[in-house]
Amino acid sequence: MKRRNFAGLLLTATTGGVLAPLLAKSTPDLKSLEVTPLVDTGLPKNLPANIKELIQNVLKQEFSVVNTDWFGSIQVEGLLRFANRGFKEGFVFADKWFKYHVENDGKLTDAEYFKQYEGPKARILRDGPLTFVIYSANLGVSFPVHELYKITKDPTAKRVCFDVADAVLHYVGRDRFGMLAHDDFDYMKFTIPDSAYWATRTTAIAATLSTDPKVADIYWKQSLFQLEAGIKHFLDKDKKLVRTGLFNGENATTYWCRSQGWLLWAIAGLLRYLPKSHPKFKTIAASMKIIADGIKQYQSKNGGLHVLVDDPSTPEEVTSISMVLSALKEGVRKGWIPNEYDDMFAKAWLFIQKSVGENGNIHNAYTGWAVPAEQKQVNKMDERFVGFVPGIIMVAADEMTR
């Protein structure tokens, strides 16, 4: 599918074209654009040995088989989190991964491209440097690409970040509330909190990269809209938990464990880039605290979350508490929420470590997704290897070893 070259025009404009008179005004929070020095110091010394094995398992994969869907992109982002702290192997893998997909994916037929990932066969966008599909989970490709850009200043990586954000602005399916839909085909059937994450963070990244404040405002507006809609429709403020989603336009009847993580990641995915002086910053941070208080109440005795958070008869689960932990720990570290969750963090981190074997293999992972969770299929534990599981653990491990 071809589309107009909006991102190309944007990059031309912001490097001395017709919008040059506006360039004296920079987008706030340019810290996110600083180059990270790559001094090779290896993995953090306080990282547990089994988590180091998990990371080595990720690195043993051939980078070309790690896809650009969330199953692959979250693994690459996890590696880059440690690369930013001096783990050069993580950067080398990520750089090879990105260059491979830029070179290779545009050569694939639609059928060949679809074989790379498990999700719905949505429309494919082909006119930028990276071919990608607008199935919602594939939009997360811009997250590790942005981290690469901060290190390399590669204009191709920058262009990809704009291309993905422009897809959210112009091409994706939406539900009747205007939220990013899961995919092209079920956009009226259900909407789930992960969509808030993909839409919010992609457009926030583009806003920080835009040197023209008028263009940046367009991305900020979309990012804020998507997150505020997600908070409105998914967060049960009375129960202080996140609903599994909307199904046929109605609130879910369950509170799935990873839904808590998805909405927290969406909130962090905006606050990480939004200037603290923004008038909506405190209100959004307050929603993070509501969820934190709910997690504090419902955390399992061993430190995880139950697959259905408010149902202690369902299994204890590790990916959800890892998502929650990483977002809330970052929130405390950066002053978005009060520092009053140390016990919850300690229990969660211990549960995560106990869920990773000495060989780096992970158990206690719910390998289903939102729809079966809403149908109360709660025993889909460790059914198969899925790439997002080690990726999530790496993100949490990075945050807990800072």
TrEMBL record:
Annotated signal sequence range: 1-20
Look up keyword GTP-binding and say if it applies.
no
Per UniProt, the keywords (alphabetical) are: Hydrolase, Signal
**UniProt-listed Pfam families:** Glyco_hydro_88
What PANTHER family does the record point to?
Answer: UNSATURATED RHAMNOGALACTURONAN HYDROLASE (EUROFUNG)
Tell me, which GO biological process terms does this entry list? Answer: carbohydrate metabolic process
InterPro entries from the xrefs?
6-hairpin_glycosidase_sf, 6hp_glycosidase-like_sf, Glyco_hydro_88, PolySaccharide_Degr_Enz
* Provenance organism: Pedobacter petrophilus
Task: Tell me where on the tree of life, at the top rank, the source sits.
Answer: Bacteria
Matching SUPFAM superfamilies: Six-hairpin glycosidases
- Which GO MF terms does the UniProt record name? hydrolase activity
Asked if the keyword Signal belongs to this entry, the reply reads yes
Write down what this protein is called.
Glycosyl hydrolase family 88
